[in-house]
What does this fold into?
Amino acid sequence: MNQLFRALRSDRSEQGFDVSIVDRNVADLPEGDVLIRVEWSSLNYKDALSATGKPGVTRQYPHTPGVDAAGVVVSANDGPWKAGDKVIVTGYDLGMNTDGGYGEYIRVPADWVVKLPQEMSCRDAMLLGTAGLTAALCVESLLDTGLSPDHGEVLVTGASGGVGAIAVALLAQLGFNVVAGTGKADAEDWLKQLGASSLVGREELQAGVAKALLKPRWAGVVDTVGGDILMNALKTLRYGASATCCGMAASGELHGTVFPFILRGINLLGVDSVELPLDIKQQVWEVLASEWRLEKSEQLLAAEVSLMELVDWFPRILAGQVRGRVLVRVAS
Ligand SMILES: NC(=O)c1ccc[n+]([C@@H]2O[C@H](COP(=O)([O-])OP(=O)(O)OC[C@H]3O[C@@H](n4cnc5c(N)ncnc54)[C@H](OP(=O)(O)O)[C@@H]3O)[C@@H](O)[C@H]2O)c1
It folds into this structure.
């Protein structure tokens, strides 16, 4: 199919990296089973890494980032999909080394595609995006350990970021007493509107790094930042409690001792939303559209931007300055 479309394109340049909006042809998209017209996408930390050429995300440039896409099937030659189906694609290789959601069309394997739940619009889905899917997986992992609201306070770190803010809102809606761990003192009112009962500052979360154990406080932790903050969170978990680990906004390293594990029986639960089997992704999206539908989802919105406007948001999210979610309007 010969069809011109608009896409954000990142490429190496003499200055380092250039991001621009270009015309592309559907015929030049990678091979795949399902051609999708993208309506909405979103901004995740990883998208900014890819768009600005940071190592370890995208190998080949020029490239169109965007790990999230929601839109309508144009044509399909495999799987259950037919023209007109509304779908979501997140993760796998989308936006990594396969052209992603920051273009008006994507072509992907049939087994990357999730049906858009009936109760959701494409915009609703991308207001959550990979961040929402990941937050839901973190919350589900904690619930699977038997955690319930009467057990005590649950800490969410990186609470003003995409994953963190959605985790705060989800946990609060499920009746938990949520403490928002954040570096943004000015986000207090907003985090409380999302459902946090109180805040704890980044300095406090980092205090006592040299100690093997700290005073137990948390019944559960959703960590999105890694490093010393995660290690301290493990040291402050109550006996037998669990923390989920999904991100590394602060650091990819974890230095500490085994004492929280062997003296307090705590658990560290890894969460991955990228390679997660498709049937589980579908189930989580259905739950996000129904029982866990967020009453306060619009409060998560940091900005709704065009592809052109999105360019300004890459440095902001890399600097940890974005509060909530950036929605990207892709269809012209
Ligand atoms: N495992 C997976 O499948 C998966 C899926 C999605 C995302 N992730 C990862 O999860 C992390 C969060 O993603 P996101 O999309 O929510 O990113 P984000 O919107 O950029 O949020 C990250 C938040 O972390 C905090 N932060 C930033 N720099 C920090 C630092 N140096 N020290 C301590 N805290 C810092 C900030 O919140 P405060 O100012 O409130 O502290 C920031 O808003 C990223 O590392 C991302 O790659 C993993």
Notes: The chain has a mean pLDDT of 96. The radius of gyration is 20 Å. The domain at 129-270 is CATH 3.40.50.720 (Rossmann fold). The pocket of NAP is lined by residues 44-46, 130-131, 134, 158-164, 182-184, 202, 224-225, 229, 246-250, 271-274, 317, 320, 322 (CB under 6 Å).
